[in-house]
Design a protein that fits this description.
13% of the residues lie in helices and 35% in strands. By secondary structure, the protein is mainly β. A 4-stranded mixed beta sheet has the order 2-1-4-8, with no helix packed on it. It has a 4-stranded mixed beta sheet with strand order 3-10-9-7, with no helix packed on it. The protein has a two-stranded antiparallel ribbon with strand order 5-6. The relative contact order is 0.17. The N terminus is likely disordered.
Length: 140
Amino acid sequence: MRQLRLMACVGLAAALGACGGGGDGGSSLSTNPGGNPPPGGGTPPPPASTVTLVNQAFSPTTITVTAGTTVTWKWNDCSGDGYGGGTCVVHQVAFDDGSGIKSDSQDQGTFARTFATKGTYKYHCTIHQAQGMVGEVVVQ
């Protein structure tokens, strides 16, 4: 019986090799053959950057990006009890530039803003500003 199984395995391996199933068939899929530029030309948008809200602080406090970058604030200020319960701290991101741009008051989720113009954009948490929860985006 053992010898019969061995012969079947050897026969299967030979058949796969003959069909190109051995992984050496030389075929590959490419979504961009030849390394050509993406359709439409131009330059890709700058990468997004993230600021995390954790331990009642912005991390990093100062972020430097290029004009056109979208910065995302991600709420991550929760503590658990180890059993699936816990609490999350509510924060609100608000800008000091007079634009009136601010996130919702929330304890989880994200907020994003795209910065098209060079400059320094200071912001704060409306709930914890007195405790020093402030940050800035420097756009170059």
